[in-house]
Amino acid sequence: MRPLDPRLVGRIGPARRYIVTTALLGLATAVAILFQALLIARALAPVLAPAPLEEDGLGWLGTLVPEDARELDTALAWLAVVVAIRVLLTWTQERLAHRAGARVISELRSQVVDHAAALGPRWAASGEGTAVATTVTRGLDSLLPYFVRYLPQLLLSATVTPLMIVVVLGLDWISAAIVIGTLPLVPIFMILIGYTTRDRSARHLEAMQRLASRTLDLIAGLPTLRALGREHGPAARVRELGDAQRRATMGSLRVAFLSGMVLELLTTLAVALVAVTLGFRLVDGAVSIETALAVLVLAPEVYLPLRMVGTHFHASADGMAAADAAFEVLETPVASPGGSAPAPNLAGATLVVEDLAVATPDGRRLAPGRLSMMARPGTVTALVGPNGDGKSTALAALMGLLTPDSGYVAALTPEGRTDAQDVIASDWSQQFAWAPQRPDLGPEGRTLSLGQRQRVALDRALSAGRPVIVLDEPTSHLDRASRDEVIARIGAAAATGATVIVATHEADLIAAADTTVHVAALEVAR
Fold first, then answer.
1. pTM for the whole thing?
2. Distance in angstroms (rounded) separating the CA atoms of residues 427 and 446
């Protein structure tokens, strides 16, 4: 896990100006911190000095804060102004960071969803769809601390820390040497803890995805489970997955707290070393009280940005793990089915499938394997075969939603033959009316059972007026009377001249079809 992911920087788009503005505000904050430290040193030095101050203990930095600030009233007035400026800068920086984070997360979420849709239903059905749903919802929301907390602190560490080292060096070179010598310990411990955090965050995201996958599958199959009286069966498994996520979350929190404690202890010891050294040198008169006060106030500010980078880096690690998952989706190549020629009118056309084969995601089988068929207008063609042998995949290839590994889909019209791979995919697929096995009706379908959703999808497909109607298991979740009604409507749609293609196991629907095509998978020789 990198401190600054270039892929994320490359996709921040319009939010880039917010990041640049945040960097400038960080530099302004560094200057305000410097003035505040010098003002505190000016105000407290006369109070703590055993004798009246005769020389300027701030050296060349004394020109930034006049010696009049040794007067308490003057120092308090200037200090109130500096504190107000710091509050304003911090508020503005937080506001812009929130806006940049929300903008980037929204755009990244849209890109992932669009790319996942372009990868097609077969890719989503391979198990990646649930992972994408988890990533774009709960996962990417964890990326907000990266922009709101971590990234501003990273910018501050690149501006405030070098500036403070230069200032401390101008005040007291011995203290600067101690700071420079102990400062590398902070990133070293950050790296050591980071290896553990990376693994913890990956396990946390994996546990969250497993729980989401199981829950989504349970919700999708709940009507069937209730019909069989098994709705309480998966409860134990969901509880186990929930416990796994809880343990992963608590593990991430423990590592985050551990990293914060280690960095706090390390910087406290480093500042204490500077303070003890200054104390002995004050006793010997080797350093002025004004110089010592300025160094003591500035020393913690040298370590603070790096310390906060480590703390917020581990807090935002879950979001970075989700971003890695999002980039895995975005970097998955999209197959581009179709060509550039206009698609023919499929009304009255005969669809031809020849030697069609599509490899399964693991590459071990072709499902379907070497499928050949013809679907004529005014007829019902039924695809039959075992589950998993490629009936739904054949329908997707027929509609131009995926590119087959071999074979072709073509349309025979009075003008001649046209291959689907040579025409614009959207022009080809928009002539199909499709009712999938598990229709997604959006918010309106949340209160409907699976059978009701299927009836709505069938009504839409059969009344769409498209020349080709594709139905995937149209009667699988319907009662006897509803099945008979749907079969009759399918026959009526074919009688109007539509080309109807169904994938089914229903004996009555197979009997009512004009043509039956057996779909089978083939093992790939190794």
1. 0.58
2. 31
